[in-house]
Specification:
Blueprint: E1 7-13, H1 15-18, H2 31-43, E2 48-52, H3 60-72, E3 80-84, H4 87-90, H5 97-113, E4 117-122, H6 133-154, E5 157-160, H7 182-195, H8 213-232, E6 245-249
Parallel strand pairs: 1-2, 1-3, 3-4, 4-5
Antiparallel strand pairs: 2-6
């Protein structure tokens, strides 16, 4: 897919693409997209530039309304753009999979019209550690199937991380059970690089974190309660946040934010 010339990789999305959960030493988020850019720079012969406009908490409509025009305005234009979105929508009451698919189509068609290769990711399945796991899994599976069909219709490149069983294990997830930890982001980056045709080393398998009543109580106190509080106040974890790499930059050195 990538060829031998210059690569300009831009990423749009929400907390998954921003890199929340992959914060070594408590620093800024790194994440799978940063790791993909690092892998491209290390393994591809031409120059690599990178932009990441993702912001945590964003619903897909806002990603399309704000981040898509910004990424299309980058100069020079991206070689390819990754999109993952809809996860936050899936956690709201009565999400509309058809509308989310139509919004994804907007991204695909706008990129293709601009001569940019769209790469659509179905994110990992977080349902194993969350309340209402069955409902969340069904919603995610429905959206993944719809986006896979869209990719086939339009010729967009599609990477299905949702079906990866390994990354569903608890050892790949942060304490909030919604965001991947560093090991999880490393695994997703390896899956993406492999799908793009760039050989990537499979990261080591992490040990699973111990579960139990105590862990569940901490999870509800530290994460579910604050999340419900933000919903009640109509607030988002991404309020007043800006993208970490809104313009072209060199890929961050390996191991940094």
């Amino acid at each position: 897919m990538l060829g031998d010339g210059p690569i300009r990789y831009a990423a749009i999305g929400d907390s998954f693409t921003e890199g929340v959960g992959d914060q070594p030493g408590g620093g800024p988020p790194r994440g799978w997209a940063d790791r993909v850019a690092e892998g491209l720079a290390a393994r591809c012969p031409g120059p690599v530039l990178y932009a990441n406009l993702a912001i945590r908490g964003r619903l897909l409509a806002r990603i399309v309304a704000e981040q898509l025009p910004a990424v299309l305005a980058l100069d020079p234009a991206p070689t390819f753009v990754t999109l993952n979105g809809g996860g936050n929508d899936m956690l709201r009451p009565k999400p509309d999979a058809a509308r989310l698919t139509a919004l994804t189509r907007e991204v695909v068609e706008a990129c293709q019209a601009a001569g940019i290769k769209p790469v659509i990711l179905a994110g990992p399945d977080p349902s194993g550690g969350l309340p209402m796991a069955g409902l969340i899994h069904r919603r995610g599976a429905e959206l993944t199937a719809a986006v896979a069909a869209l990719a086939e219709q339009t010729g967009a490149f599609f990477i299905n991380v949702f079906r990866d069983l390994e990354v569903r294990r608890p050892g790949y997830w942060s304490d909030d059970r919604l965001h991947l930890n560093s090991a999880g982001h490393a695994r997703v980056a390896a899956l993406v690089l492999d799908a793009l045709g760039v050989a990537a080393q499979t990261p080591p398998t992490p040990p699973d974190a111990p579960l139990g009543v105590g862990a569940d109580l901490r999870f509800y106190f530290r994460h579910v309660g604050p999340w419900l509080g933000r919903r009640a106040r109509r607030r988002s974890s991404g309020d007043n946040r800006s993208p970490k790499h809104p313009t072209w930059t060199d890929p961050p050195p390996a191991g940094t934010g």
